[in-house]
Design brief:
about 80 residues; globular
Length: about 80
């Protein structure tokens, strides 16, 4: 398995209006999950989300690709 970097969001019980609509819906849900949290709580939520989703993916090759891609994309000042 290889890391999928193209839009790949789906919601099986809803028609897709535009290719990026389910991705927008996820982004909205992610932002909403952070509402009312302190910075520390937001960091904890992000860390737990990464671990839950990493466990769901399970393939260490894919996870290493994702880590490398994320690391390489971080802006350094």
């Amino acid at each position: 398995m290889h890391l999928i970097t193209e839009p790949n969001f789906t919601e099986f019980d809803k028609p897709v209006f535009r290719e990026f609509s389910p991705g927008d819906d996820f982004y909205e849900a992610l932002i909403s999950a952070h509402e009312g949290l302190t910075d520390a709580q937001s960091h904890e939520l992000n860390a737990k989300l990464v671990l839950f989703l990493s466990n769901h993916i399970g393939d260490l090759r894919v996870l290493r690709q994702a880590l490398q891609l994320a690391h390489d994309s971080v802006a350094r000042y």
